[in-house]
Design goal:
The complex is a heterodimer of chains A (about 325) and B (about 290).
Chain A (H helix, E strand, L loop, with lengths): L7 H4 L6 H10 L5 H11 L6 H13 L1 E4 L7 H12 L13 E4 L4 H7 L6 E6 L9 H13 L4 E5 L2 H5 L3 H15 L3 E5 L8 H13 L4 E3 L11 H18 L4 E3 L7 H14 L12 E3 L1 H15 L12
Parallel strand pairs in A: 1-2, 1-8, 2-3, 3-4, 4-5, 5-6, 6-7
Helix pairs in contact in A: 3-11, 4-12, 4-13, 5-6, 7-9, 10-11, 11-12
Chain B lengths: L26 E5 L5 E6 L3 H20 L2 H17 L1 H12 L3 H21 L3 H5 L1 E2 L6 E9 L2 E5 L7 H12 L3 E5 L6 H11 L8 E4 L3 H10 L5 E3 L5 H11 L5 E3 L13 H5 L1 E9 L11
Parallel strand pairs in B: 5-6, 5-8, 6-7, 8-9
Antiparallel strand pairs in B: 1-2, 3-4, 4-10
Classes of the chains: A alpha/beta (about 325), B alpha/beta (about 290).
């Protein structure tokens, strides 16, 4: 689906004021919802077999942000999760590590210790996740805490209330402030697409996030009814593709929530390859925010290796 | 002759409480005992088997956790539904096994009675095979039977309805969930049984019915790591041996094929074949100076 991206020279000035930003975001081409969903569905019908499937499963495992975001998280659970992220399948040392573990800020130090010495990063949600309903100073303190505890990546939520009220500059300024507070940590900006109502809004939020300096744009928190779908991920992938074409800056994408099976994960990878291209087929640029997905990927991996269907008795329960 | 157009029935699989076609899209022709075409049955594939295992595993917690009394009620309800659709089963059994209407009717009656018989066993089997064990120590020692888990049942090839019920009912009566591979030659009574189960309060996934080539569907099920037991009633000697070897990999419980007269009253053998014994030691508290405080 071709989208006409705005001219490059305009991008420097669009964030100059509230009105220029609004004009720019509302000037983005409207999304053809039927076409978008049909495209996402048709990309989901590809049949991926044998060696390509093995490659896709390993790639997907390496892209998982293994997540636990529960009120009941204990240090023990976070340590167990960290161990699983480093070595997802203890019976098969050839399985790759996941990309990161994703925890609440107060668990960052525990997670950091659990994955020490491995390639696994520690991501922390921040800015009053998941609602994002707190004063900016509180959100920034939340971010600084997480960074000080050693978080490599920060997952922030945007102020959906301000966005839906049309107060784009407020959202923009917040992202910029959080980006600054994050320092060297990579910033993932969560839009909570399930609360943005329309595809047009998702496209606007994507551009807004990227203009503000997001390193990653992320669909959702996993805490609402509608999370990552093939269609909204496809839409965000188009945005990062167009943004790179305009500015030369590459931004990552992270669908989160609701991706539970290997089949789903492979469909997303097909969408990545066909929309943004091979450059994004790397865990530096594409992630899955998930928890139960990893077990299904491991069971599929065991099936490919042994020819026998595996079962939940052969993966760790977390 | 009436002018009505024939309304043919599309037989479908029964998996997870739903009636899907085979994932493979294949069907095969089912004929009666004289070779006359009866219907097309879905020819299940290994992926249908995989889906059935997922459904059976999902259903296991609820079904094994239901009270034995409740399971008995539901099984009895199934017998009630079978009774209501007796004519259909008589016709299907007569076609499949080449019996006269009256002989088929006797077979179907026996099958329904068999189902009622097993319904009665749900809350009695624990008394028969469990109980208190005498031990030389200050403990209660109790054994109780627990369901094995997900059981693959290869239904008998010849006895398409009475045989089928004789192998399925004991498996689910004790709280297991089942994946039933119907008789390859005569799958129609089994597929119709799925329709009865779907309307009888039986939670979806407790029984899943697959039809097709027995050898093709049974092989991945025998090797499946998430299947806990397999009943080889419908396998010939060569296939049974192959499946037993595949089943050994995750130490599946295997019930070997044996000559059975399904008209005879069954013992509790099939009920206990897929039970495991859980034994609990419980301290009885302090002992008085003169021995037991009881």
């Amino acid at each position: 689906m071709p989208t006409t991206a705005p001219a490059a020279h305009a991008l420097g000035e669009v964030t100059a004021s509230d009105s220029t930003l609004r004009r720019f975001l509302h000037g983005l081409p409207g999304v053809d919802a039927v076409g978008l969903e049909a495209r996402a569905a048709s990309l989901g019908t590809r049949s991926i077999k044998t060696t390509a499937k093995a490659y896709a499963i390993d790639l997907a495992i390496s892209m998982v942000d293994l997540t636990t975001l529960e009120g009941a998280d204990t240090p023990g659970k976070v340590r167990a999760l960290g161990a699983k992220a480093v070595r997802p399948d203890p019976t098969d040392r050839t399985s790759p590590s996941t990309a990161a573990v994703c925890v609440y800020p107060d668990m960052v130090a525990v997670a950091k210790e659990a994955v020490a010495g491995s390639s696994v990063k520690v991501a922390s949600v921040a800015t009053a996740f998941p609602a994002g309903r707190a004063a900016l100073s509180v959100k920034l303190a939340d971010v600084r805490d997480a960074v000080a505890a050693g978080a490599d990546e920060i997952d922030m939520v945007i102020d959906r209330g301000a966005f839906l009220a049309g107060n784009y500059m407020k959202v923009y300024d917040e992202i910029v402030a959080v980006k600054e507070a994050s320092g060297a940590a990579r910033l993932k900006v969560i839009f909570e697409t399930g609360e943005l109502s329309t595809y047009d809004n998702i496209r606007r939020a994507s551009w807004l996030g990227m203009l503000a300096g997001a390193d990653f744009i992320k669909t959702s928190t996993g805490k609402v009814a509608v999370n990552a779908t093939p269609a909204n991920t496809l839409l965000m992938l188009e945005a990062v593709r167009d943004f790179r074409a305009q500015t030369g800056i590459q931004v990552g994408v992270k669908p989160a929530g609701g991706i539970r099976t290997s089949k789903d994960a492979v469909k997303f990878l097909v969408i990545v390859n066909e929309t943004a291209g091979e450059d994004w087929l790397d865990n530096h640029w594409f992630r899955f925010g998930a928890s139960s997905l990893l077990n299904d990927l491991l069971m599929q991996r065991q099936k490919l290796a042994t020819g026998r269907y595996s079962g939940p008795d052969y993966v760790t329960v977390d | 002759m009436s002018d009505r157009l024939s309304v043919f029935k599309t037989y479908k699989l029964y998996v997870g409480g739903k009636f899907p076609r085979s994932e493979s899209g294949r069907v095969y022709e089912v004929t009666d005992s004289k070779g006359k075409w009866l219907a097309n049955a879905p020819q299940g594939s290994r992926k249908d088997a995989r889906d059935a295992v997922v459904a059976a595993r999902k259903a296991f917690g609820g079904w094994s956790g239901a009270t034995a009394y409740n399971r008995g009620q539901i099984l009895y309800r199934i017998a009630e539904m079978l009774e209501g659709r007796k004519d259909q089963f008589v016709r299907e059994v007569a076609d499949a096994e080449g019996l006269s209407k009256s002989k088929a009717s006797v077979v179907v009656d026996a099958a329904i009675d068999r189902w009622v018989w097993y319904a009665g066993w749900t809350d009695k089997i624990a008394q028969v095979v469990g109980g208190a064990n005498p031990v030389a120590g200050p403990y209660f020692n109790l054994s109780s039977p627990e369901p094995t888990g997900v059981v693959t049942v290869l239904a008998p090839q010849e006895s398409s309805f009475l045989g089928l019920i004789s192998v399925v009912a004991p498996v689910i009566a004790t709280g297991n969930t089942a994946i039933v591979v119907a008789s390859e030659k005569s799958p129609l009574p089994a597929l119709s049984l799925g329709e009865v189960l779907a309307t009888s309060d039986l939670p979806g996934g407790v029984v899943n019915v697959l039809s097709g080539r027995t050898a093709e569907i049974a092989a991945p099920l025998a090797a499946h790591q998430d299947v806990n037991a397999i009943d080889l009633a419908g396998a010939d000697d060569v296939l049974a041996k192959e499946l037993e070897i595949a089943a050994a990999d995750n130490l599946k419980r295997v019930l070997r094929p044996q000559p059975v007269d399904y008209n005879e009253t069954p013992g509790t053998e099939r009920l206990t074949a897929f039970l495991e014994t859980k034994t609990v030691w419980h301290p009885t508290g302090s002992l008085g100076a003169s021995g037991s405080s009881y």
